[in-house]
Amino acid sequence: MSAPSMAAALAASLPAPSTAPTPAAPVYEAIPPSMSTAIDVEVEIPITCVQLDALVVSKIIQHGRDAPLASAHGLLLGLDLEGVLEVSNSFPLPIHAHDDDEKVSKSIARYQTSTLRSLREVQGDDNIVGFYQATNLGAFLSQSLVDTQAIHQDRLRHGGVVVVHDISQTARGTASLRAFKLTPSFIDARKKANFSTSSLIHHRLTFSSILEEIPLRIRTNPLLNSFLKVLAAPSSTTQYTSALPPSYSVLDLGNSGLTRNLEQVAEGIDNYRTEEGNVAYLSRQIAREKSRLESHLAKRREENAQRVAQGLSPLPEEDVSRMFKIPPEPSRLESTLLLGQVDAYAKMLESTAGLGLAKMYAAKGGGE
Question: Residue 17 burial (CB < 10 Å; 0-12/13-18/19+)?
Answer without folding.
Answer: exposed
